[in-house]
Amino acid sequence: MKKIAVLPGDGIGPEIMAEAVKVLQALDLPLTLEWADVGGKAYETSGHPLPPATLKLAQEADAVLFGAVGDWKYDKLERALRPEQAILGLRKALGLFANFRPAICYEQLTHASSLKPELVAGLDILIIRELTGDIYFGQPRGRRTAVDGHFPGSEEGFDTMRYSRPEIERIAHVAFQAAQKRNKRLTSVDKANVLETSQLWKDVVTEVHAQYPDVALDHMYVDNAAMQLVKAPKKFDVVVTGNMFGDILSDEAAMLTGSIGMLPSASLDANNKGLYEPSHGSAPDIAGQGIANPLATILSAAMMLKFSLNLPDAAARIEAAVESVLAQGLRTADIWSEGTSKVSTIEMGDAVVKAI
Amino acid sequence: MKKIAVLPGDGIGPEIMAEAVKVLQALDLPLTLEWADVGGKAYETSGHPLPPATLKLAQEADAVLFGAVGDWKYDKLERALRPEQAILGLRKALGLFANFRPAICYEQLTHASSLKPELVAGLDILIIRELTGDIYFGQPRGRRTAVDGHFPGSEEGFDTMRYSRPEIERIAHVAFQAAQKRNKRLTSVDKANVLETSQLWKDVVTEVHAQYPDVALDHMYVDNAAMQLVKAPKKFDVVVTGNMFGDILSDEAAMLTGSIGMLPSASLDANNKGLYEPSHGSAPDIAGQGIANPLATILSAAMMLKFSLNLPDAAARIEAAVESVLAQGLRTADIWSEGTSKVSTIEMGDAVVKAI
Ligand SMILES: CC(C)[C@H](C(=O)O)[C@@H](O)C(=O)O
Ligand SMILES: CC(C)[C@H](C(=O)O)[C@@H](O)C(=O)O
Predict the structure, then answer these.
(1) Structure pTM?
(2) Does the active-site annotation cover B73?
(3) Which chain B positions have a beta carbon within 8 Å of A248's beta carbon?
(4) B178-235 pLDDT per residue, tens
(5) Across chain A, where does the E strand assignment appear?
(6) Fold category of A1-104+262-356 in CATH
(7) For domain A114-257, which CATH number applies: 3.40.30.10, 3.40.718.10, 3.30.450.90, 3.30.1330.10?
(8) N or C: which end of chain B has fewer CB within 10 A?
């Protein structure tokens, strides 16, 4: 029996999670599911977005299935109590340093993209983002009185970007190994023409490359990567980058597909334990209406079965079922187009279960 | 008589600059032009990408017209000698803190965009990027042995992101005033859910807003901004952000138009002295072939006349001439399409001169 921590969270989180759970249960696997509050919901019930009981469950579980967190109503809270601290706290506490963010354009949804169909048809890129280092967690950080710079004596805010050699090595190994399983091309994104951290990043990725001679490595500056993703996204295979640049580029890449409601993600530790969540957010504007797309969460559950639970066949059954409901023309509102059938969150979940 | 420092630089720089100079000369304005080497070219002639004579000329001039710098052949040089240090050095030495990066989609070039025509037709956004602060220039930075973090004792690279209150205030004033002259909407982009620097940025922009009640201000996280630019770029009017995020988003926005060869930029100090350069790079792959698009540099010269030299009529004549050559169907290779006439760099410059 493997234990899954189920953390639905805020906004549409509970609705999409209910469908993913339904799909997991339909597979009749040796899994125990345990629920806990997280994010704004947890703040309301216990005063903190990541309460000790939730963290403990996540630590004890074999994998975490995460919905989404956040709502405008928490905007006025101090930063340490805001919903997104739950996700940052889980990444740090569980050591989830390797974030897999696929950007895939499903054949039937090509038209949903902002880009011309020929630029995105068949798009399948994988962004690997380092997730526990960089300016996200670097100390020191805070506010102080500037002693130098343009305006000494004035108040300033500051943060520290930093990466150590072993942190870069381990994410580089993950990325090269992922590229080996795909088209054997890896693009490492940095800003080495400006940043010291990036120069070390580039040096270390280049060194690790010696152990993966079958993978073609290139380096790209982050500003250029933001452009090339728009210009010719299909030229990429696997992209590896730091936490901050990865936050920006993985969202840009996801939006290129036009169907971010379809995209799962995985955040893994050194032993393939992971947290799985849709790439989209908590969408408080449509919460409770029963119209959210549950497929990204359902596909996140599939990633979980494959990466953390060693159940690749069950994962493949979910993926095939999702392909099948798309082929049947079923669409939630976010991916609906003329000539297809608009279904609710629950109807979509039911259809996936039926297809399994 | 006003003095212009003309710095052609590397790659296609000299070719596109020759056309911009031709256009300026055709206008018969009270300007003296003085040339100097910069970037890789300057490194070769005098051992430094920004030699003292070039810096002195730029400091004495009323404005700087800049081509482009950089070539792969300088990749192996130590960072302090690489071509891009010239542009960083000029920004810092001249105090060019306000970077104006318009992303405009010309009617005749809509098809050149990666995006569907309806998403970019008539696009006209202005990204204002702070250019002398942030992690680009923040001290301390370097390599050291980590004393804390995930791997104490290992080598690490680090950089400091920082913004002081007066640095944020002055760029906020520039941005609100620019928005007042346009559609009165300003989006401030930050990562205040994670970064201390961003939280101060957001607080200060909000405070400055009180002085511009006619401008509608909203705040957006950088990852979301990278998505919204792809999803619905026309929803933006003016965007203001820091140096690092602005580097990424302004290039993304420029590429959305599909015709980055058309986009000028201005980098201004507190007294409207400025450096003007095309938004594209030095394109060493096509240097010397006479096929580069000179229009971004020609339009940068127009921006210079308007912003730094108080010659708005002359600027308008250049802009009208560029519209006219496009209407005539003349296109360099980068923007060429079936049914239009392909012209060389020199032919394009000549056509603009003729249209003036
Ligand atoms: C909510 C936020 C802190 C988070 C991040 O920046 O990592 C989110 O944008 C993400 O990408 O998962
Ligand atoms: C060349 C490089 C240092 C520069 C920057 O990052 O600012 C460039 O990308 C730009 O945007 O002008």
Answers:
(1) 0.97
(2) no
(3) 222-223, 226, 245, 248
(4) 999 999 999 999 999 999 999 999 999 999 999 999 999 999 999 999 999 999 999 9
(5) 2-9, 31-35, 63-68, 98-104, 124-130, 142-145, 155-164, 185-190, 216-221, 238-241, 264-268, 274-278, 330-331, 341-342
(6) Isopropylmalate Dehydrogenase (3.40.718)
(7) 3.40.718.10
(8) N
